[in-house]
Design goal:
Among the domains are: 140 residues, Gyrase A, domain 2; 89 residues, Beta Barrel (Elongation Factor Tu (Ef-tu), domain 3). 20% of the residues lie in helices and 33% in strands. The strands form four sheets. Strands 11-12-13-10-4-14 form a six-stranded mixed β-sheet. The model has no long low-confidence stretch (mean pLDDT 96). The chain is of the alpha+beta class and 366 residues long.
């Protein structure tokens, strides 16, 4: 049986179609996914992302300990700030892609669904005498992502604060009686958005108070299109434990090359200094509006029509959708080195024959 959202009973009153996603039963749409998609771009939408992993790292050694096992500079990240990073093995294979939010006494980690036990098991393996602890709150808190041109103004008014965090990963904590509500900025869907993290009861109160104020719920179908347009990967769908950090192509955002030693650092540094990766996560835009399923194989075009040798297998699609803004199908895909330059033409193995696609820089829509 799939797990249910902390606010399942509330969403059940409004969502006619549900679907399982990473072991969770989620509202796939609220009647019209294109209307929800447009609301996120032109007005205000709220997306329930409570299935995401939420870990709390505490103890006086929390910053230095976490710093030693991830690709970004945790120690120099100040209170109220944050960063994204990869948790890596000694061979620099990715165990999780996460976002860290540094508070005065704890560090909150946000990662894709299902990564909590793996992350804690990995970190606990190296925990010897450091004063640090890990708590997995995944699924216990309501995590609502608010986005759209009107999100900042309305959410600030509803939360009774003068302003919301203005920079990526910036965050604040608001006390509501004896409960804490956390607000953090993160561009999950390619535009400014704010996660509101709170006990489920507090989240439900907020939703009930503002439901009639032109608020549009965002189902997972529309969010998936926006996510792919933004080039935002998901662990378990677009990357996994076989990948190296530089293959995901988020070096400037998630990797510090000046922080010093950490588990996996030698391989990451060697790739940057002397070598290269052999595959990379790229964007593809197709000459059709019909999207292709995950796992679809990609090939290099034949140099001439008379060529009889089999086409070279150069990658595979990981996520795809039809983009209303672009009027075509788009995808995230792994491509072999030599084929990821924007403008390169590749072929996908469609159900009725080859489909042409052009490699694009991510995000698809700036």
């Amino acid at each position: 049986m799939p797990a249910t959202l902390p606010l399942h009973d509330f969403w059940q009153l409004h969502a006619p179609h549900w679907q399982e996603d990473f072991g969770w039963l989620v509202p796939w749409h609220f009647g019209d996914w294109k209307r929800e998609y447009q609301a996120a771009l032109s007005s205000l939408a709220v997306w329930d992302i409570s299935p995401r992993t939420t870990l709390v790292v505490a103890g006086k050694d929390r910053s230095t300990f976490l710093h030693n096992f991830c690709t970004n500079d945790i120690v120099r990240t100040g209170v109220g700030q944050g960063c994204e990073a990869f948790l890596t093995t000694a061979q620099a294979k990715i165990l999780a892609w996460f976002h860290a939010f540094v508070e005065a006494e704890t560090i909150y980690l946000d990662a894709d669904p299902g990564r909590g036990p793996i992350m804690i098991q990995h970190l606990s393996r190296y925990h010897i005498t450091e004063e640090v602890s890990f708590q997995d709150l995944s699924g216990q808190l309501a995590v609502l992502h608010w986005t759209g041109p009107r999100a900042q103004e309305k959410l600030a008014r509803w939360l009774h604060v003068s302003s919301l965090p203005q920079q990526e990963h910036q965050h604040i904590m608001i006390t509501c009686g004896d409960q804490a509500l956390r607000v953090r900025q993160l561009r999950r869907l390619g535009q400014p958005g704010w996660d509101v993290v709170s006990p489920p009861g507090l989240a439900r109160q907020l939703l009930e108070q503002v439901w009639d104020d032109n608020l549009c719920p965002l189902g997972y179908a529309a969010a998936e299109v926006l996510r792919i347009e933004a080039g935002w990967p998901v662990f378990g769908r677009d990357l996994d434990e076989t990948n190296l950090p530089q293959e995901v192509d988020r070096d400037e955002l998630a990797i510090s090359f000046t922080k010093g030693c950490y588990l996996g650092q030698e391989t990451v540094a060697r790739i940057r200094a002397y070598g290269h990766v052999n595959r990379k996560l790229c964007g593809l835009r197709f000459n059709t509006a019909d999207s292709l399923p995950s796992g679809t194989r990609l090939f290099a075009p034949q140099p001439s029509a008379s060529t009889t040798s089999p086409a070279a297998d150069i990658g595979r699609i990981t996520s795809s959708a039809t983009s209303p803004r672009l009027g075509s199908a788009i995808a995230l895909a792994w491509l072999r080195r030599g084929y990821w330059q924007p403008g390169t033409v590749v072929l996908a193995a469609g159900p009725s024959g080859s489909v042409t696609a052009t490699v694009c820089a991510l995000p698809f829509i700036a």
